[in-house]
Design goal:
Number of strands: 9
Strand order of the largest sheet: 3-2-1-4-5-6-7
Radius of gyration: 18 Å
CATH topology: Rossmann fold
Number of helices: 8
Oligomer: single chain
Bound molecules: 2-hydroxyethylsulfonic acid
């Protein structure tokens, strides 16, 4: 039996999920990495195991999983022993069309991964989190969980949905030793988020961050995940909003124009 506390991280193949897994491993957790892309997960688990000198049952684990596959999520939960922390990071934005033009299939995918994925993984792991005596559920939402913006209708609707899930769950678990933490990042520059939203259009993805002085990185958000998770168990960080200094609000972003002069 492992002595380490166990943290399950979804969406751990890249971006905030991978950074959070790295950070929680550094914090001393045994990390169970899940995402659909097995090769990436296995490479990260191998890296973390080499760094921590872990082998066998104590080792960090890569478990390929699609959080939208209910039966697979159940089987995953059944395969686990101890679980102290669950970080729900799997998510994404698919398309940036205005509501008038949006494809309901994109919205359905966004609801599946951003809302129902969190529901299914959280439901399935609650018994183990409860059994830990001091469980933590982290939901990585977005500032899109708080405000709508043009072209963000489906994503904002899904993230508002998972914000509501976090709120209901926190109320329903009141009196139990499980805390529910929502972390809402604003502009974070990762390899894939904007590229996925713009369906692989690298120019449009790059334009999101153009001229912005230091957008947040995945490591910056992982730092907040780590901080919230490592507070004493009676301390619940209900909602943590984190943005780059250059983004005062969703629509208020300071950008340097291409000629280098300052403009706000
Ligand atoms: C990502 C932040 O501004 O693209 O969740 O909605 S934003």
């Amino acid at each position: 039996m492992t002595e380490r506390k166990v943290a399950v991280v979804t969406g751990a193949s890249s971006g905030i999920g991978a950074a959070s897994a790295r950070r929680l491993a550094a914090d001393g957790y045994r990390v169970v990495l899940t995402a659909r892309r097995a090769a990436r997960l296995e490479a990260l688990a191998k890296e973390l195991n080499a760094a921590d000198g872990l082998t066998g049952a104590d080792a960090h684990l890569a478990y390929p999983l699609d959080v939208t596959d209910r039966a697979a999520v159940r089987a995953f939960a059944d395969s686990l022993g101890r679980v102290d922390v669950l970080v729900n990071d799997a998510g994404g934005a698919f398309g940036a069309e205005y509501v008038e033009e949006a494809d309901p299939a994109d919205w359905e995918r966004m609801f599946q991964v951003n809302v129902l994925g969190v529901l299914q993984v959280t439901q399935s792991l609650l018994p183990a989190l409860r059994a830990s005596g001091a469980g933590t559920v982290v939901i990585v939402s977005s500032t899109a969980a708080q405000v709508a913006y043009e072209g963000g209708g489906g994503y904002a609707a899904a993230k508002h949905g998972v914000h509501a899930l976090a709120g209901s769950l926190r109320l329903e678990l009141c009196g139990e030793p499980i805390r529910v933490i929502e972390i809402a990042p604003g502009m974070v520059q990762t390899d894939e988020f904007a590229l996925t939203r713009y369906r692989g259009d690298a120019d449009k993805a790059a334009a999101v961050y153009a001229g912005v002085e230091r957008p947040l990185t995945a490591d910056d958000v992982a730092d907040t995940v780590s901080w919230a998770v490592t507070r004493p168990p009676h301390v619940n960080v209900d909602l943590l909003v984190v943005r780059p200094v250059a983004q005062a609000a969703q629509h208020k972003v300071a950008r340097r124009p291409a000629d280098g002069t300052e403009a706000h």
